[in-house]
Amino acid sequence: MAGDELLASIFKYASIAVAAALGLYATLLWCLTMPTFQSHVVYLHAFQMTWFKDLNVPETFGFLRNQVTPFSIETPDRVQLYAWHILPIELYRKHERSLNAEPTGFVSDITSRLAFQLLRDDPEARLIIHLHGAGGTVGSGYRVPNYRALSAGQPEKIHVLTFDYRGFGRSAGTPCESGLIRDALSVVDWAIKVAGIPPSRILIFGQSMGTAVSIAVSQHFALQSPPVVFAGTVLVAPFIDVATLVSTYRVAGTIPILSPLARFPRLFQYLQRYIKDTWRTKDRIAEYVRTNERNGEKYRLTIIHAEDDYDIPWHHTEMVFWYAVNATTPVGISYDALEQKKLDSKLNLGAAGSVMEWTTDHGVIREEILKTGLHDVVMGYPIVTMAVMRSLEAADPSFTH
Question: Which controlled-vocabulary keywords does the entry list (predicted)?
């Protein structure tokens, strides 16, 4: 009898726990239909991850005195974006004494600083516009090692310009899809018009959520008349679109958000109607490639992903790569046909992963899959340096000589 009572008690409390879990999950789903809550979940902009450091003191993040210049860029809708201009280390070494003589901290007029002049006045300078992922600030996590990897291939010529989107870090405003794209366009406009760097010497780099912003920017400029094409676009850990991402996404790789509902297509499709910012990278990357092919413009697109990425599964890159390749010809190519071509053409690098290049008369689309690298650690890897140098050299073969 005692055993039966124990089992009944266990069943009772288990039922209560399951009901509570289902109730919490239902509450989460309801909250996700609310734009403000959804925005915080998608962008994670409230999680700065640099609370105990001052972004206006970049030296606390491991930089040399005045290697980084903090300043702001204003958007057309009057949002002040917080930005860092990062000098490459060898260029810094050559001007160390003069740079050390200048005051440190946030600069209201960056054009008055030596670092800016070294960028503007050097016809050989290259600029990487860095678009970071969700959450954090320009100084968070693996972003600092990423900046070093970006300029490591030519440490005298490659400058990095990174910034926080509206609502992130010290930047004003509230994040949304159109707003983040406007932010990135404003930064590129600043680079071209204020710093005087032509698009042929600018590379667009994005990671995670930044990949969606990056391809939106590249597409926007490709559609201009006359078309504007950069030295290259590098995407690390992209995703197809938000709807597909949430159907697979697990917090910390373990806690699902909407993936359990993917088994119920009608319910899942119903909830998709509430997705405010869709970030349809698959469509934008196809239009970007299609536009350049139609215009006869030279372009270079590199997509990198690690197989052990538990934030954004690496199969997203396989699909993004296919959408890009499919847009290179009027008749297109099926996903299965491309996979077959990969079996015949991709370069197997063993423990380092694999590489597949799709080349047309006008462009190169490169897919690099690493065996390891997780979601963020990969940003400091040599593969990033190589992708940058490969793009810059393709745009100007004399750059590395």
Answer: Hydrolase, Membrane, Transmembrane, Transmembrane helix
